[in-house]
Design a protein that fits this description.
This is UPF0179 protein EYH55_05530. Belongs to the UPF0179 family. It comes from Methanothermococcus okinawensis. The chain is mainly β and about 140 residues long. It has two domains: about 70 residues, no CATH class; about 70 residues, no CATH class. The chain is about 5% helix and about 40% strand. The longest helix is centred in the N-terminal third of the chain and has 5 residues.
Length: about 140
């Protein structure tokens, strides 16, 4: 996987943290660092911080400025899928998309940064309790190019 260099809010800049790139804000238009922040980033993709460098830079968006970080696109996402689809090696392009926002599993059923196509790399054995009655399994997936 290709490593990239970008800037991220100093408070968020911790090795191992993940974030989803949502695109450039209006405040970024006049910033001299906008190229390093946004070049090569894909809206909706999930990235993982590999290394945080010591330099600080000012930023109109992030209170406390930004730090230079090395990142890579995240290779694995944990999510919930229908039990009948929970097969290692299976390639999928959908998710549950449940609208029960008060459910403890909401973010696993609706993972942000999910690629268009992904492959199941691990299936957990335990079944997941679902208030809507769906038969669910927790899985780890990785993007398919």
């Amino acid at each position: 996987m290709e490593k990239k260099v970008t800037l991220i809010g100093s408070r968020l800049a911790k090795t191992g943290n993940e974030f989803i790139y949502y695109g450039m804000l209006k405040e970024c238009d006049s910033c001299r660092f906008k190229k390093i922040c946004h070049e090569g980033m894909v809206v909706g993709r999930r990235y993982r911080i590999l290394c945080v460098r010591s330099a600080d830079h000012p930023c109109k968006v992030h209170e406390g400025g930004v730090k230079v970080v090395e990142i890579e696109e995240s290779q694995e996402i944990t999510m919930l899928i229908e039990s009948r689809k929970a097969l290692e090696g299976l390639t999928l392009s959908d998710s549950i998309n449940c609208n029960n926002i008060v459910c403890e599993n909401y973010f696993l059923c609706n993972p942000e940064g999910l690629p268009e196509k992904y492959r199941i790399v691990k299936v957990f054995k335990e079944k997941i309790s679902c208030p809507k009655g769906y038969s669910l399994r927790k899985v780890v997936v990785s993007p398919v190019d």
